[in-house]
From TrEMBL:
This protein's record includes keyword Nucleus: yes
Entry GO CC: nucleus
Family: Belongs to the H2.0 homeobox family.
SMART domains cross-referenced by the UniProt entry: HOX
Location of the protein in the cell: Nucleus
Molecular function per GO: DNA binding
Entry annotated with the keyword GTP-binding: no
Species: Trichogramma kaykai
Protein keywords: DNA-binding, Homeobox, Nucleus
SUPFAM superfamilies membership: Homeodomain-like (SSF46689)
Lineage start: Eukaryota, Metazoa, Ecdysozoa, Arthropoda, Hexapoda
Protein's recorded name: Homeobox domain-containing protein
Amino acid sequence: MINVTIEINVSIKINVSSMINVTITSSVKSCKQIENNNNNNSRRKSWSRAVFSSLQRKGLEKRFIIQKYITKPDRRQLAGTLGLTDAQVKVWFQNRRMKWRQTIQKKQHIAMQQFENVSNLIVSIPSNKDISNKLQSTDN
């Protein structure tokens, strides 16, 4: 017999200032599983994910275009401006760099495939000697 208890808390934080920042955090507080009444084996899983507003995403993307690797002071300043934590900005930049690298690799792969396709279409041009040999063989 398996008994599962899950508690889910959702908190919404709205900060109204010169810009509207919305942070939504959801987390699973506890997950207990009891199998065959054996000593109450329990595991705790915690999960939270920030949902960025469109204004926050635009601000982060704008900075990423200018600066792929953000310094600590710049990161703190950007976090304060957008109403995010330093850690959120740091992780966002790490994830965005991974996405950027994958995009570059895909473009390089496509370009390489196109190059290979074109190079396979190139036909060798016969030399004068080859042409004269063919003409002689058809005359006979």
